[in-house]
Structure prediction request, 124 residues.
Amino acid sequence: VQLVESGGGLVQAGGSLRVSCAASGRSLSRYAMGWFRQAPGKERELVAAISSGGITYYQDSVKGRFTISRANAKNTVYLQMNSLEPEDTAVYYCAAVRLTTPQAMRVRDEYDYWGQGTQVTVSS
Prediction:
């Protein structure tokens, strides 16, 4: 599975962005998908995840602001980010793991495939 992120950029605090993750090579329908982010000097952390059946998980800091969704027909996963804060600045990565549980999809080391990342910068 090859994953390619797009849609990052520079936005002012309070603004919105939608990042996309397009997959090729295999159908994503049996994969759980995650969006991770990594800020300079920090570890890569899970932001949101969605199971193959549509169960979602969000990190506490983004609940109510971010929405993860998937369009299996387009082999694409999205992360809609609203009310962005400077603390959301990071490189955002999508990742895929096949046929896992909603609990296991919260674990970074479970993921098998990763994209190259897209930069999101939120100015104050």
